Automatic annotation (TrEMBL):
<keyword id="KW-0547">Nucleotide-binding</keyword>
<keyword id="KW-0813">Transport</keyword>
<feature type="domain" description="ABC transporter">
    <location>
        <begin position="24"/>
        <end position="258"/>
    </location>
</feature>
<dbReference type="InterPro" id="IPR003593">
    <property type="entry name" value="AAA+_ATPase"/>
</dbReference>
<dbReference type="InterPro" id="IPR027417">
    <property type="entry name" value="P-loop_NTPase"/>
</dbReference>
<keyword id="KW-0046">Antibiotic resistance</keyword>
<dbReference type="Pfam" id="PF00005">
    <property type="entry name" value="ABC_tran"/>
</dbReference>
<dbReference type="GO" id="GO:0046677">
    <property type="term" value="P:response to antibiotic"/>
</dbReference>
<keyword id="KW-0067">ATP-binding</keyword>
<dbReference type="GO" id="GO:0005524">
    <property type="term" value="F:ATP binding"/>
</dbReference>
<dbReference type="GO" id="GO:0016887">
    <property type="term" value="F:ATP hydrolysis activity"/>
</dbReference>
<dbReference type="GO" id="GO:0005886">
    <property type="term" value="C:plasma membrane"/>
</dbReference>
<dbReference type="InterPro" id="IPR050763">
    <property type="entry name" value="ABC_transporter_ATP-binding"/>
</dbReference>
<dbReference type="InterPro" id="IPR003439">
    <property type="entry name" value="ABC_transporter-like_ATP-bd"/>
</dbReference>
<protein>
    <submittedName>
        <fullName>ATP-binding cassette domain-containing protein</fullName>
    </submittedName>
</protein>
<dbReference type="InterPro" id="IPR017871">
    <property type="entry name" value="ABC_transporter-like_CS"/>
</dbReference>
Length: 325
């Protein structure tokens, strides 16, 4: 069963335009002109219950707009969305109780003067959580997100990484079945980002939640999403397994061998040498030839180590963004 069904979704913003200068400012009071920005165009995809999918694309591709539409913050210009059978922008209570949108740019909503614990208690009242379930959930989240030292601090006094941990606890306290994560590691240092990734991976496995994630950090995508949906100019450019995108965009693999006695001429007519340092050689090999090239090298050279690598996701996406899929 699909938890999220997006069908022919489009969203056009109407943005007021004004030329520079005082005269233009007055003129715009009488005659306001608008221009249209098509943020999302005819987007369609489905996410089965329990899947973690990465919604990727370059800046301005329409990801955040799509996330806002799927979580009911915006009403689309055209098309439909169903999340757990609900139309998000109707914002019905049973829908709101089963989804969460977490944004790295605004990890914690609500009153920033409240302490983390007060905010969690407020969330309990808002979502009508039974006392026992609340305490069990809170203990679990507090442990996983290391919230102990933060509970009695005001939200506004937290660092970015601490805010994200608190924001996740606030959003996950009521155990949403569908989680929209918009750049959850934005601006975090390497270990804070890694901690969030570890937590999300564990949360997804433990709860079987459906997760739609946007991120510009490849580590997030690689550790969490097997399926990628690539959008550009508001349209789906690719929807499928992560590895297949690499195979489609890069017809080569990298063969890394360590052969102390090898010289450059040994590779003539066998594989293209792209880098070498000491006894180690990086070879670019067409995907279909990897097996034959490997066995040729193993017979002709004294190979002490060998590894076959996919091009990095960063390289693959850079190519997809620049040249299309
Ligand atoms: N509230 C708004 N009013 C007008 N235009 C908007 C609004 N929000 C977004 N846009 C425009 O819609 C397009 C898509 O923006 P969106 O934020 O959805 O992209 P994104 O893929 O999330 O980008 P990024 O990776 O930079 O966060 C952009 O051209 C953006 O300028």
């Amino acid at each position: 069963m699909s938890a999220v069904v997006v069908d022919g979704l489009s969203m056009t913003y109407r943005v007021p335009v004004r030329e520079a200068g005082l005269k233009a400012a007055f003129r715009s009071l009488v005659h306001r002109r608008y221009r249209e920005v098509e943020a999302v165009r005819d987007l369609s995809f489905e996410v089965p219950a329990g899947e973690v999918v990465g919604l990727l694309g370059p800046n301005g591709a329409g990801k955040t707009t799509a996330m806002k539409l799927m979580s009911g913050l915006l009403h689309p210009t055209a098309g439909s969305v169903e999340v757990l059978g609900f139309t998000p922008w109707q914002r019905r209570t049973p829908f709101l109780k089963q989804i969460a949108l977490v944004r790295g740019s605004q990890p914690t909503g609500g009153a920033q003067e409240l302490t983390v614990l007060d905010s969690l208690q407020y969330q309990r009242v808002l979502y009508d959580l039974p006392e026992a379930g609340y305490h069990a959930g809170l203990d679990e989240l507090a442990e996983l997100l290391e919230l102990g030292p933060l509970l009695h601090r005001q939200l506004r006094a937290l660092s970015l990484g601490e805010k994200m941990r608190a924001g996740l606890a606030l959003s996950l306290l009521y155990r949403p079945k569908v989680l929209f994560l918009d750049e959850p590691t934005l601006g975090l240092d390497v270990s804070a980002a890694a901690a969030i990734r570890r937590f999300l991976a564990a949360y997804a496995t433990q709860t079987g939640a459906t997760i739609v994630l946007t991120s510009h950090y490849m580590a997030d995508v690689e550790s969490l999403c097997r399926r990628l949906i690539l959008v550009d100019h508001g349209r789906v450019q690719y929807d499928g397994p992560r590895e297949e995108l690499a195979a489609r965009l890069s017809p080569y693999k990298l063969l890394r061998i360590s052969a102390p006695a090898a010289v450059k001429e040994d590779f003539d007519g066998v594989a293209e040498v792209v880098a070498t340092s000491g006894v180690s050689w990086d070879l670019r090999v067409p995907r279909d030839d990897v097996a034959s090239v490997t066995s040729r090298l193993l017979t002709s050279l004294d190979v002490v180590d060998l590894a076959v690598e996919e091009p990095s996701l960063e390289t693959v996406l850079d190519r997809a963004y620049r040249e299309g899929v």
